[in-house]
Design a protein that fits this description.
The complex is a heterodimer of chains A (111) and B (113). Chain A is mostly beta strands. Chain A has no helices and eleven strands. Chain B has strands at 4-7, 10-13, 19-25, 31-37, 43-51, 54-57, 64-66, 76-78, 87-95, 101-104, 108-112. The chains are: A mainly beta (111), B mainly beta (113). Chain A binds chain B through residues 1, 4, 31, 33, 35, 41-45, 48, 86, 88, 95-104, and chain B through 33, 35, 40-45, 48, 50, 56-59, 88, 90, 92, 99-104, 106-107.
Chain lengths: 111, 113
């Protein structure tokens, strides 16, 4: 399968600070998505970003597929940003599609 | 729209028992999937379906069965539960019309004793 590594594993921020989360993957992929899992376990899609850059409010993401990495930027962090951020890649195989998740970055934003 | 609905939310099973986790979506998505999430790990794909009548295996399919008789429903069956299947299970569906956005259910917490 494809290895997906996220860094840092844990991050503690003061409210208002900025941060960059990184996702490296070991092989070429067809799709890449970022998710946020809140402290109650709910998973929300943030970005579908197989390549290029997208922005949504205080969040933005960039994927450089040729170099096999993606970055998630969080600006002016808020306590509601706390949770775990997952990167997931998808690869189309002749036998079917497979999704691979990273182990996540656990973010805690303190007031 | 209710989105993706999973039941039950919590379940305790004895080793060897069978059960079915239900998943339903009302968004007319063709693609549905089941994941398990274990402590300190990301989600791992169990089974997926690209449409009614079509299912396929993911990364960790052993011990689980699925079927897809309708577009709306994608149940996950544990035939003989084992302690190693203690996990949080997420059902998801995908909207190919809006950039492949994945929508997750709220999760089902399963403990096998």
């Amino acid at each position: 399968g494809i290895q997906v590594e996220q860094s840092p594993p844990d991050l503690i921020l003061q409210e208002g600070a900025n941060s960059t989360l990184r996702c490296n993957f070991s092989d070429s992929v067809n799709n890449l998505q970022w998710f946020h899992q809140n402290p109650w376990g709910q998973l929300i899609n943030l970005f579908y970003i197989p390549s290029g850059t997208k922005q949504n409010g205080r969040l933005s993401a960039t994927t450089v597929a040729t170099e096999r990495y993606s970055l998630l930027y969080i600006s002016s962090s808020q306590t509601t940003d706390s949770g775990v951020y997952f990167c997931a890649v998808e690869r189309y195989f002749s036998t079917g599609n497979q999704f691979y998740f990273g182990t996540g970055t656990s973010l805690t934003v303190i007031p | 729209n209710a989105g993706v609905t999973q039941t039950p939310k919590f379940q305790v099973l004895k080793t060897g028992q069978s059960m079915t986790l239900q998943c339903a979506q009302d968004m007319n998505h063709e693609y549905m999937s089941w994941y398990r999430q274990d402590p300190g790990m990301g989600l791992r794909l169990i089974h997926y379906s690209v449409g009614a009548g079509i299912t396929d295996q993911g990364e960790v399919p052993n011990g689980y069965n699925v079927s897809r008789s309708t577009t709306e429903d994608f149940p996950l069956r544990l035939l003989s539960a084992a302690p190693s299947q203690t996990s949080v299970y997420f059902c998801a569906s995908r909207d190919k019309t809006s950039g492949n956005t994945i929508y997750f259910g709220e999760g089902s917490w399963l403990t096998v004793v």
